[in-house]
């Protein structure tokens, strides 16, 4: 269960109600059209789970339980969402396998990661929506050569799975070499694709509770369109209304388990909302991600006494389901910290969270608090849908195309020119 506590001082008057109503209808049109498909992913991906169960019995290595390393080769939307979910849930997930990500073409990073992987016990997932992502195909080629895989041999081709659009270059390559492929719906963009095969395939292989993840997401989206989550639209209105005064949105998450969820949020928010609007104006909101209590000692000072140009969302876990305590030990010269002796670390981090949130509010900084009752697959499903819906709602109000990324494409074209001179 998740509680959303908004403290924004936004008057929902007549104008606001009209903007919210118009935006909601725009989101309904998106959902009902064939253009934007992420709204239907939780329901549609339930069928994918059935296909994975069949695949698990078809692949010789999986059937014989010989896979110990699952390696995701992908970048951006092809890896961040998967990493966000896995890192959030891994501590209470039972599996003998390890999950690795090859997402950067930094040669040191590639070499150091591959040192930890046993190629004889590995399953490589090549993830690219377009099928031609330069970083992904380059790492894929490197692995083929390094380990001398011959894809004409079934024993080698079964070491790979591809996740891509049907009919893409990677899809055709998979067909040629009889590599198992799972397809991403054409109407689902990379950064919105975590609940498609992009995330569900590796998470299923790592024994994550994907059915709970999907069901919670589906229920939350349904409740939004049944107008039971109006806080999302009100928050989106507030963000767009004060965007020039408060152009920076801070996500301050009080658990290390949120580290990669925060990074997923940054891509979703930045790549979706940093655009030119219908009038040609440059618009957008800048995401900043922090982890408490670590960043109390680095970034909080800027929030409290720096420029008042930030909104803050604090993300909290009520029950860590861990009873570890600070020992009741008296240390010479350190007696001024004895007041915390005997308390749990859970209470310490949550009281730090409460103190931070109260300080932010008392300093008239727009803020809201999202509280999870515990770390669970269902709560992660809700969080993913919450931020995707919020992003789409803000995009509607900014009057932009939330789902393209022309700025990214400019850089890709320049890269091609540099190598084709």
Key descriptive features of the protein:
421 residues; Rossmann fold; 2 domains; 5-stranded mixed sheet; 5-stranded parallel sheet; 16 helices; 12 strands
Briefly summarize what is shown.
The protein is built from 16 helices and twelve strands.
Describe the protein in words.
This protein has 421 residues and is α/β, with parallel strands linked by helices. Helices cover 47% and strands 16% of the residues. The protein contains 16 helices and twelve strands. The strands form three sheets. A five-stranded mixed β-sheet has the order 1-12-11-7-10, sandwiched between helices. A five-stranded parallel β-sheet has the order 3-2-4-5-6, with helices on both faces. Strands 8-9 form a two-stranded antiparallel sheet.
Write the layout of secondary structure elements.
Elements (H helix, E strand, L loop, with lengths): L1 E5 L7 H19 L8 H18 L1 H4 L5 E5 L6 H10 L8 E5 L4 H9 L6 E6 L6 H13 L7 H4 L2 E6 L3 H8 L3 E5 L12 H9 L4 H16 L4 H12 L6 E6 L5 H15 L1 E2 L5 E2 L2 E6 L8 H6 L4 E10 L25 H18 L4 E8 L2 H22 L7 H14 L2
Parallel strand pairs: 2-3, 2-4, 4-5, 5-6, 7-10, 7-11, 11-12
Antiparallel strand pairs: 1-12, 8-9
Helix pairs in contact: 1-15, 2-9, 2-10, 4-9, 4-12, 10-15, 11-15, 12-15
Family: Belongs to the GPI family.
Organism: Halarcobacter mediterraneus
InterPro entries: G6P_Isomerase, Phosphoglucose_isomerase_CS, SIS_dom_sf, SIS_PGI_1, SIS_PGI_2
């Amino acid at each position: 269960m998740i509680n959303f506590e908004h403290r924004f001082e936004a008057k929902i008057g007549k104008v606001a109600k009209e903007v919210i109503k118009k935006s909601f209808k725009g989101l309904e049109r998106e959902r009902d059209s064939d253009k934007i498909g992420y709204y239907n992913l939780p329901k549609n991906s339930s069928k994918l789970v059935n296909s994975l169960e069949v695949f698990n019995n078809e692949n010789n290595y999986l059937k014989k339980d010989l896979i110990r390393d699952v390696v995701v080769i992908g970048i951006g939307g092809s890896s961040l969402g998967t990493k966000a979910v896995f890192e959030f849930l891994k501590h209470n997930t039972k599996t003998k396998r390890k999950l690795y990500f090859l997402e950067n073409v930094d040669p040191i990073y590639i070499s150091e990661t591959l040192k930890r992987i046993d190629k004889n016990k590995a399953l490589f997932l090549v993830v690219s929506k377009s099928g031609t992502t330069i970083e992904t195909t380059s790492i894929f080629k490197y692995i083929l050569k390094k380990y001398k895989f011959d894809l004409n041999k079934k024993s080698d081709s079964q070491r790979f799975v591809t996740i891509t659009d049907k009919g893409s270059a990677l899809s055709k390559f998979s067909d040629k070499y009889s590599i198992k492929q799972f397809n991403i719906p054409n109407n689902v963009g990379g950064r919105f694709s975590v609940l498609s095969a992009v995330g569900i395939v590796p998470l299923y292989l790592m024994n994550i509770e994907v059915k709970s993840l999907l069901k919670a997401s589906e229920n939350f989206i349904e409740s939004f369109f049944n107008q039971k989550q109006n806080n999302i639209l009100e928050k989106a209105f507030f963000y767009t209304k004060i965007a020039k005064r408060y152009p920076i949105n801070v996500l301050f998450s009080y658990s290390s388990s949120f580290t990669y969820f925060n990074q997923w949020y940054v891509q979703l928010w930045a790549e979706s909302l940093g655009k030119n609007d219908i009038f040609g104006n440059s618009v957008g909101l800048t995401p900043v991600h922090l982890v408490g209590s670590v960043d109390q000692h680095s970034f909080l000072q800027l929030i409290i006494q720096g420029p008042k140009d930030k909104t803050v969302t604090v993300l909290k876990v009520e029950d860590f389901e861990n009873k570890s305590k600070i020992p009741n030990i008296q240390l010479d010269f350190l007696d001024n910290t004895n007041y915390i002796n005997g308390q749990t670390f859970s209470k310490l981090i949550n009281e730090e969270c409460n103190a931070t949130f109260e300080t932010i509010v008392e300093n008239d900084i727009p803020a809201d608090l999202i509280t999870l009752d515990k770390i669970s697959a269902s709560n992660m499903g809700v969080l993913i849908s919450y931020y995707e819906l919020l992003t789409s709602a803000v995009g509607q109000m900014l009057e932009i195309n939330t789902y393209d990324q022309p700025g990214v494409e400019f850089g890709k074209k320049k890269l091609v020119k540099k190598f084709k001179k």
